[in-house]
Amino acid sequence: MKRILIPLLxxxxxxxxxxxxxxxxxxxxxIPGYSWNDRFTPSFDVAVPDSSSYYNLYIIIRHTDSYxxxxxxxxxxxxxxxxxxxxxxxxxxxxDQDGRWLGVSMDDVVSQRVPILQQSSFSRPxxxxxxxxxxxxxxxxxxxxxxxLRLEKTGPRQP
Length: 159
Description:
11 strands
């Protein structure tokens, strides 16, 4: 029986590797106490392997159903290789006009992947640094469980 189960388990795990082939980077950070203070600044170092491809960059957010806003404002500081940091204020829509969450809900937890760059290219391969600060009027911001960053390769740039 072990002769059958061990190879079967190995091939099952090996075949699952291709399910997320677009992902270049993904990291999520838990918000302490599920209450995001603007002094807590999650940071992400993303290795971009290829400047000849297009990428999508997403903010990943998990919050409870008790989150009382339909959006989230962030200050995103980006540092590209060999360049000075640049900060942008970005609004992430989290609910539609009727108040329904745009993400996936399981019980009272909502998970969302919000695009902030789509079909973009990076000028050169290297290490890109991103840091996030919540920029809402309420501080600390309750019911935010985690925040993250995901980079996906979408395909080669056309000459």
